[in-house]
Amino acid sequence: QKEVEQNSGPLSVPEGAIASLNCTYSDRGSQSFFWYRQYSGKSPELIMSIYSNGDKEDGRFTAQLNKASQYVSLLIRDSQPSDSATYLCAVNRGGSYIPTFGRGTSLIVHP
Amino acid sequence: ETGVTQSPTHLIKTRGQQVTLRCSSQSGHNTVSWYQQALGQGPQFIFQYYREEENGRGNFPPRFSGLQFPNYSSELNVNALELDDSALYLCASSFWGASGANVLTFGAGSRLTVL
Q1: What does the pLDDT average to over B6-16?
Q2: DSSP state at residue B48
Q3: Could you tell me how far CA B45 lies from the centroid of its own chain?
Q4: Among A31, A40, B55, B68, which is disulfide-ready with B50 (CB 3.0 to 4.6 Å)?
Q5: By the 8 A CB rule, do A108 and A21 touch?
Q6: Nearest-angstrom CA–CA distance, B94 and B69
Q7: H helices present in chain B, as ranges
């Protein structure tokens, strides 16, 4: 089992829809969780971080964490074509400050 | 505030050669991490440097080595290049303080092609 798993996609949604991106992780002791966005040919940039169970909202983005299910998700409301990118889930295992990344989910928002 | 800068942006090497990649960390950051990202994959952790010491290492062979300098800049050296070393090499800086390390800020990357 990989430490951080994501469906590689592509996930295709129409403009204005909600995009739901999912990530599972294997280490129950993991404490910190991150979502990065990576445009093609560019480097990852941080969108959200979440550390406790529940939802965290920032503009059109909502991160959801369920430690019991070892599951973290990212919702993008009112998706725009400019949201088309690869979304990387990253997790700090228990006792570590070094994030482990999933392979990323490719999101395509079509007009 | 300056961001993370990497050089060179692109380079081509042949098998068996050696390469050095450079990174200047973001102002105020004291920790540098290096990641390798193959096409279609997520970044894979190579190692991290804090206070000029290696602070963690991923599953990479010893021919991958690094340095951190007193100004917190860093180098990644790869000896005896192999075709599978072709990838985007990402440098990321962060601040390690009393409450631990904060999030990573990535540079634009160095794309290495090994022929």
Answers
A1: 97
A2: E
A3: 9
A4: B55
A5: no
A6: 15
A7: none
**Taking Cα atoms as reference points, which of B85, B86, B83 lies closest to residue B60?**
B85
Using a CB-CB cut-off of 8 Å, the residues of chain B touching A6 are: 42
| Closest-CA residue of chain B to A99 | B45
* CB pair distance less than 8 Å for A88 and B43: yes
Cβ atoms of B76 and B85 within 8 Å: the answer is no
Round to whole Å and give the CA distance between B10 and B111. Answer: 5
Q: Specify the length of chain B in residues.
A: 115
Whether B93 contacts B31, CB under 8 Å: yes
Flag if A88 and B35 touch (Cβ within 8 Å): no
Alpha carbon A55 to chain centroid, angstroms: 13
Asked, as a colleague might, if the bond just before B8 is cis with ω within 30 of 0, I would say: yes
Instruction: Return the exposure string of B25-63: e unless at least 16 CB atoms fall within 10 Å of the residue's CB, then b.
Output: bbeebbbbbbbbbeeeebbbbbbbbbeeeebeebebeee
